[in-house]
Amino acid sequence: MKSSGFIQKLKEGVRKVTDLFIGRLRNRIIVLFLMVALIPLVATSIYIVNEASSALINKQKESYEKLAIGTADIVDEYIEQRMTEVKILAATTDIKSKDLVVKSKFLKNFAENTDAFDGITYTNSDGIVFADTFGSNFGSDLSDRWYIKDGLEGKDSYSEVVIAKSTGKRSIIVATPVKGEDNTITGVLSGLIDFEELMKKYTYDLYIDDGAGYPIVVDSKGVIQLHPNQELIGKTVSESGVSQGLAHIMQSKGTRSGDTTYQDGGNTFIVIHASMEDSGYELYLNLPQKAITEEVDSVKKEITIVVLIVMMVVSAIAYFVSRQISRPIMEVASVTKRISTGDLTVSALKIRTRDEVGQLSQSVNAMVENLRGFISKVQFTAEEVATSAEELYINAEQASKATEQIATTIEQMAEGTDQQLRDTEASVSTITEVAEDVLQVAANAQQVTDSAMQTSRTAGEGNEEILTVIAQMHAIQETVTRIADIISNLGARSIEIEDMAKVISEMAAQTNLLSLNAAIEAARAGEHGRGFAVVADEIRKLAEHSARSAGQIGQLVSAIQSETHLAVESMAQGTKEVGLGIEVVDHAGKSFEIIQQSINQVAAQIQEVTAYSQQMQSSTEQAVAIVSQISEVAKRSADGTKDISAAAQEQLASIEEVNSFSGSLATMAEDLRNIAKGFKL
C-alpha cells in the first residue's frame, strides 16, 4: 500500500511538472525554442568534444611516447659514446704499450680531464688488474667477470647494473678488448659509469605531475634498476609486488615502443614503452590516464560553459517571443472562458493584428454578437412553447380519461367472450377425447377379436398336436415293452452262457490234471517218454488258456447280467413314466377343447362390442363437428373483441404518450427558459 501511494504521488508530481512546462502555450514555445537551439548545439558539442578528446589524448600519448623514446635513445647514445671513448683509448699506443707505468699514467691523465667515467681499469689477458685510475685495485683478479671474459674473446660488452667496489655506487661497466701490434688480444679496457647519475640526468623530465607519472627501467634479466620506490630496485618484476597489469606489461616485451593501458584500484594507467637496444634495457613511463585527459577535461568545461550561456540567451529570446505570441491568445482565451459560463456582456476584443490571432479575435467578436441575438430569440420562443404545452397537457388529460372508460368496457366484453371461447374449446376437446377413446375401443375390440380367432385356431392346432403326441406316446410304450422283453430274454441267455463257462472251466481243470499225470509218466519213461511229455505240456498250456478264457467269459457274463438287470429296471420305470405322460397329454387335450370353445364365445361377444363402438364413433363425429362450428364462431367473436380492445388500448397509450409528451414539452420549455435566463445579455 505504501508503495502504491508513493507511485501515485510520483505520478501526480510528474503531471504537475508537465503542466507547468508544457501545459501553457508560453512554456511550450520556450521548450520548443530550447529544443531547436540546444539539440544541434549539444550534438555538435558532443561530437567536437569526442573528436577533440581523441585528438588531444592521441597527441599527448604521442608526445609522451616521443619523450620516452628520446630519453631511451639519449641514454643509449650516452652509453654508446662511452663505449666509443673506451675503444679509442684501447687503440692508443699508451694502452697497447707493455710498460705498465705508461698505461697507468695515461689513464690517470685521461680521468683528470673527463667526468664521464668514475674510473677506468686495464686487465691483462689473465684478467688481472695491471692499471686503473683508482690505484687501489692493482693485482685484483677480475677474470670471473663476464664482461672481462667477453673482452678477452674480442667482444665489446655492457654489464648489468652492479655495485662498484671502488665507489660503492650502482654503476654500468663498458668493456672492449685491447689488441697488440700483432692484433692479438693482450687485455681488456673497461670504464665505470655512474648509473644513478645517468638516470638522474636524463630521466628527470619523465617525472610528471609531482611524481604521479614516473619512469621504470628494467634490465635484460628482468631486474628493476630504476623506480621511485627504492625498495623495489634490485628485485625482479615478479618479486617486486607491482600491480598485475603493470607486471604483465613489463614481462611481455613487445615492439621497440608503444603504449598499453591497465587497471589498478579502479584507476586507469597508461604505460609507454621504449627499448634501449644497445644496452638491452627497457624504459617504461607509467602515467595515470587523468594526467593525459586533464586538457580534455578543460575543453569539456569550456564547452559546457558555452552551452549554458547559449541556453540562457535562447531562453531569454524564447521568453520574449512567447510573450508576444501568447498575450493576444490569452486575451481570446479569457473572453471565451467568460462566454462558456454564459456571460455575453464581454467587451469586444481590440486586437488589430493581421495574423491568425487577429482573425480569431474578430471571429470571437462576431460569435458573441450572434449568440446574443440567438439567445434573445430562444427566450421568446421558450415562453410561447411553455404556454402551448400547458394547454396541450390539459386537453390530453381529458381525452385520456374518456378513452380509459371505453377501454375498460371493451376489456370486460373481451373477458366474457374469452371465457365463452375457453368453455367451447373445452367442450370440443372433451368430445374429441371421447371420440378418440371410442375409436380406440373399436380398434382394441377388433384386435381382441382377431387375437381370439387366432387363439382359437392355435388351440385347435394344439389339440391336434396333443392327439398326435398321445399316439406317439403309445407307440413308445409298446416299443419300450418289447425292448424290456428282449433284455429279459438276454438275461436268461447270459445265465446259460455262464453255465457253459463253468463246464469249460471244469473241463480245463480235468485236462490240466491229466496233462500233469501224463508228464509224470513221461518222466518215468525217460528218453522214450520225452515226446509224450512235450505233448502233455502243450495240453497243459491249452488247458490253462481255456481256464483263463472261461474265467473271463464268466466275468463278462456277470457284468452283462448286472447291466441287463439295470436295463430291465430302467425299461420298467420308462414304461411307467410313458403311461403317466399319456394320461397328462390326454388331460391337456381335453383342456384345449374347453379353451377353444371359450375363445369362440368371447370372439362372438367382442364382435358385438365392435359394432356398437362403430355406431358410437359416428355419433361422436357429428357432435364434434357441431361443437367445432360453435367454437369457431366464438373464436371470431373473441378475436373481434380483442381487436377492439387492443385498438382502445393503443388509443389510450397514444393519448398517454401525448399527455407525457406535453408534460415533457412543458418541462423542456421551462428548462429552455431557465437556460436562456442563464445568459447575461
UniProtKB/TrEMBL annotation:
Signal peptide range: none
Q: What is this protein called?
A: Methyl-accepting chemotaxis protein
* Name of a matching Pfam family: HAMP
Q: Which domain of life is it from?
A: Bacteria
Give its localization: Cell membrane
Write out the similarity annotation.
Answer: Belongs to the methyl-accepting chemotaxis (MCP) protein family.
Keyword Cell membrane in the entry? The reply is yes
One term under GO cellular component: plasma membrane
Q: Where is the Methyl-accepting transducer domain?
A: 395-631
Q: Which Gene Ontology terms describe the biological processes this protein takes part in?
A: chemotaxis; signal transduction
| Entry-linked PROSITE patterns | CHEMOTAXIS_TRANSDUC_2, HAMP
Quote the Gene3D superfamilies the UniProt record gives. 6.10.340.10, Methyl-accepting chemotaxis protein, PAS domain
